[in-house]
């Protein structure tokens, strides 16, 4: 899909209502809002960026906690304006036809990041707020906006109206509008989105499409640009907009009036291309799937806690399990079967390798857990991520499921030492420390230069990144956290899908249940990534001890040394090197007191040795 300049041409024809008042206070029961969740999250991001674009530093200037608060503020504005928030839908699967679009978008982000770095480095030698505003506007969006907003809304008063769907959110918005229109013929429905293509769907006679990007507030009144598809169809004397939209897709510059004249003279499309086009704008499948989510709480709950990237993986694996008698997706005659994962785009140093080399084995354990639950054989997983200014797929051959119990049990042991210790007062700070330990083990295991305690404290305290070294370390820290989040979500998915019974092979059940219980304490995105309020000196003492214990060398020289362990040879060009997975031998210089303060680092095993290779 994607009809170029559709909204612009409808506007030129007079079919768009500009800056119109959206609701009427005290009429909430008669006007329902159906919201495209990802579009809403990016709308909120745009508003926050406008307020803070002139602030100094590299990367995003908006904290994830602000996205949560701003999202709730806007929903309250909707309700104050007389709109009933019927449902908010978030993506949970990517159609095969959209995968090239996803890769293209990742490529664009990589190019934007490269251009941003060049411009920022140039502007860093000058002072000027207008230049900073322009520079920040060119930066790719922060990595976790959509899951952070979904998570915040799922923990709010709107929790029962949040859906993660097995498809694209905007198509499910149409399905929901059609459902509402059928049940409430005299009530208004507004779909809030930024996808003008939704005007082509048959969404009911009382449905309008509201463009989030045009929304403004005047006092307590909301205004926006919108259109009523059924009214447009009536104006051109047609039952729907399929023929009009088809001609407009074929010619991106033809006007509505010109197409209308053709149709009135009998130029109705009847070719195979038109049939395929119409099929793209049917929401019949989404209506069936939505009905299942609405009537089966277990199905809804199983998807609800998944971020889009992992939900996409689950849907692919589940579909393949349903078609068990057919081959998996074939790549070529030489390659095995596989599924795709499009990792979130991290704000990283574009001159370096992607920060997603961190946490690779945690993600592999997440994939294997889901494959085991669905009874799928070991499978190729293709992780798409930035590589320089390009996008490449890293090929992962998932392990035999027989290895999974030992992996999960070892991970449980390693994390428990820190999370159950009383080294730090709050749960979130204990998890921050556990992530740092995991990050350092990953550095050691791959022969990466260790950061200093000062650099790690800079990230933990959430200070503005003024140097690209801090940007990179922050991205690696986020990659480690998010990889563990993916493992947590995979275990939650299994638990929800089997009513807590962990429908896994018997030998996997105990370790999976225990680890899932521990990981339930992992904070959400906004809570975890908000700056720590612990004193810098406290963090420095802990981090110096941690670095010394893990590396076996003093923190003052840690940044100057690279572990002497040899990396395992790469199996193929697309597979990055990883270590042999054996435990790093720690030094014995730290005192018992420092060991205790480090949260049991000495007694815990190398997390990546535990996960194996």
Automatic annotation (TrEMBL):
<feature type="domain" description="Asteroid">
    <location>
        <begin position="142"/>
        <end position="396"/>
    </location>
</feature>
<dbReference type="InterPro" id="IPR029060">
    <property type="entry name" value="PIN-like_dom_sf"/>
</dbReference>
<comment type="similarity">
    <text>Belongs to the asteroid family.</text>
</comment>
<dbReference type="InterPro" id="IPR039436">
    <property type="entry name" value="Asteroid_dom"/>
</dbReference>
<feature type="region of interest" description="Disordered">
    <location>
        <begin position="568"/>
        <end position="598"/>
    </location>
</feature>
<dbReference type="Pfam" id="PF12813">
    <property type="entry name" value="XPG_I_2"/>
</dbReference>
<protein>
    <recommendedName>
        <fullName>Asteroid domain-containing protein</fullName>
    </recommendedName>
</protein>
<feature type="compositionally biased region" description="Polar residues">
    <location>
        <begin position="574"/>
        <end position="591"/>
    </location>
</feature>
<dbReference type="InterPro" id="IPR026832">
    <property type="entry name" value="Asteroid"/>
</dbReference>
